[in-house]
Design brief:
Strand content: 15-25%
Order of helices and strands: EEEHHHHEHEHEHEHEEEE
Radius of gyration: 17 Å
Length: 222
């Protein structure tokens, strides 16, 4: 399946938004932190970078170090989150993100991120973006993307059926999570195009949103 890039109109009742790679470009710090981690563990950093996007850190570590006890992954993940939260150099908004979020005022939407509260708050602030009122963070779920728990929880908190939600995602794990939740997926950025979202956009300047009668959302993809 190839995602469509032609002008498209979609309708939904709620939008569920990933953060890293979707609203915020944090690739520079993610690369720095995970390449240092790779060096400490004697792993090929290029191969590691193919795994880590979209997942919580402990879940990436479990894939990369399958024989290591999970309690070590969890402890290492806590250190990684603190390191990432302290390093905001190069964190910038994805083009169009501020305008896109502003257009969602009064419309049902939620942030669904693998970052924890501290990291998501720091990165959104560094990018100059307002946090949605409803947020599903690492602390909110028991399973990382590609498990659909986060998106299902976001839909439940908004009181919307999963089939009536559209996910915005950039990573393989996130796109898989959205699909597993029974939701349509708009892929954002170059990573997304490899993982079969329903629609793919270069960035959020290609997306326009408006509310419709009865509480629906109409999404225009240019």
């Amino acid at each position: 399946m190839t995602a469509t890039t032609v002008p498209t109109v979609l309708t939904a009742r709620a939008l569920l938004l990933d953060m890293d790679g979707t609203l915020v470009n944090s690739d520079a710090v993610v690369e720095r932190c995970w390449r240092r981690w790779s060096e400490r563990h004697g792993l090929n950093a290029d191969e590691v970078m193919k795994v880590v996007h979209g997942r919580q850190g402990y879940a990436s570590m479990a894939v990369l170090l399958p024989d290591r006890p999970m309690e070590q992954n969890m402890a290492d993940n806590a250190r990684m989150l603190a390191e990432e939260t302290a390093d905001l150099d190069g964190v910038v908004p994805v083009p169009g993100a501020a305008e896109f979020l502003a257009s969602l005022a009064g419309l049902p939407h939620a942030l669904v991120t693998s970052a924890d509260v501290a990291l998501s708050t720091a990165r959104m602030a560094a990018a100059g973006l307002a946090l949605p009122d409803i947020r599903v963070t690492a602390e909110s779920v028991g399973a990382s993307k590609p498990d659909p728990e986060g998106f299902l929880k976001g839909a439940a908190e908004l009181g919307v059926d999963p089939a009536d939600c559209i996910v915005f995602e950039d990573s393989a794990a996130g796109i898989a999570a959205g699909r597993s939740a029974g939701m349509r997926v708009v892929g954002v950025g170059p990573r997304a195009d490899f993982h079969e979202p329903d629609v793919v956009v270069r960035d959020l300047t290609q997306v326009r949103v408006e509310g419709v009668a009865g509480g629906g959302i109409r999404l225009y993809v240019a």
